UniProtKB/TrEMBL annotation:
Belongs to the class-III pyridoxal-phosphate-dependent aminotransferase family. ArgD subfamily. The gene is argD. Pathway: Amino-acid biosynthesis; L-lysine biosynthesis via DAP pathway; LL-2,6-diaminopimelate from (S)-tetrahydrodipicolinate (succinylase route): step 2/3; Amino-acid biosynthesis; L-arginine biosynthesis; N(2)-acetyl-L-ornithine from L-glutamate: step 4/4. This is Acetylornithine/succinyldiaminopimelate aminotransferase. Pyridoxal 5'-phosphate binds at G108, A109, F141, D226, E227, V228, Q229, T284. It comes from Buchnera aphidicola.
Amino acid sequence: MILKNTSVTRNNFDDLILPFYKPSYFIPVKGQGSRIWDQEGKEYIDFSGGIAVTSLGHCHPILNKVLNYQSKKIWHTSNIFTNEPSLRLAKKLILSSFASYVFFANSGAEANEAAFKLARYYAAKKYHLKKNNIISFYNSFHGRTFFTVSVGGQAKYSDCFGPKPSGIQHAEFNKIESVRKLINKNTCAIVLELIQGEGGIIPASKPFLEELRILCNKYNALLIFDEVQTGIGRTGKLFAYEHYSIKPDILTIAKSLGGGFPISAMLTTSEVKSVIKPGIHGTTYGGNPLACAIAEATIDIINTKEVLSGVQKKLSKIIFELNIINERFKLFKEIRGMGLLVGIVLEQKFIKKIYEILYVSFLEGVIFLTAGNNVIRMAPSLIITEIDIIEGMKRFCCALEKIL
Ligand SMILES: *Cc1c(COP(=O)(O)O)cnc(C)c1O
């Protein structure tokens, strides 16, 4: 394996790639489990998990095997055919969820786009054309297509792109009264993340979710759970909704589903399916056999007692280590989230230093994310080892020593 500099460097980014992003100063070139290496051969412990995507770490041997195997069989057929991996994957998703039908796409935004279109289409066919209002929540995140970013709860992401889609209303997360004020017979759907991810790792409360279900039933609106970040084992259950015992009408998943290979899915009920006919929605790549084969293997591994119950154990270890760090540095006031979606809510005096903390952590060889403007986020591999947790926290400690 060649780890030395190749002929491209981080500086080339600024000359070649549109600056929608400002990537970190180093380029990862190799990953194994929860460790990644940069062009210089420097090693990092990865608590970012590719932003909650590489749920089985990097280059999991079984996923590599399945990728190789399927790559020699068939990669792509388009949707003029169905294919074996997508049917097998659909079966597994249906058997382990509330759903009876699945639609495959390629990203979280696309799965949500399909969900929002379907919610409106269902209401138009089943009730009337005016029933098209979607209620979502401030600080929510549902993707970057124009529809999904408009449904999302941060206006700054949809400003200056021309006229926004209408019929979208935003309520206060975890405040049922604010939903009651907006909902009426023209509401077709309420959509929420069970844990607001980009918004700061804020879990929905159980009473709030129960009330939303009741309101949706009363007004014939569909309840949509965006589990793009929380689905497929992230919280210690296959789906986060299982913690709440509340079922949605539509659910979307993506990030963890392919373990690093792009794929997403929208799951729904027979009732919602009843309005669908061939041709009303589509995608070229969705349900691609290569992606589905890898997702199938990912679910096979994650949907086991061993991996799912391991999530809680790993969380306990992380919290244990973080509390030791906090005794020394008084860094955070709260740890929130669920399973291995961890939000470290910084004390006021550290909020200004959040990017410095991340940067110096990189220098010390440990990778974290942010969420909102005051939360350090971790979304590591669901099978991160105890050794990697301990070593990562040791490096975090060294980083904090340098800053404070
Ligand atoms: C990441 C994310 C999305 C968008 O997924 P993409 O694959 O980037 O399109 C949507 N919803 C939630 C909750 C997410 O965390």
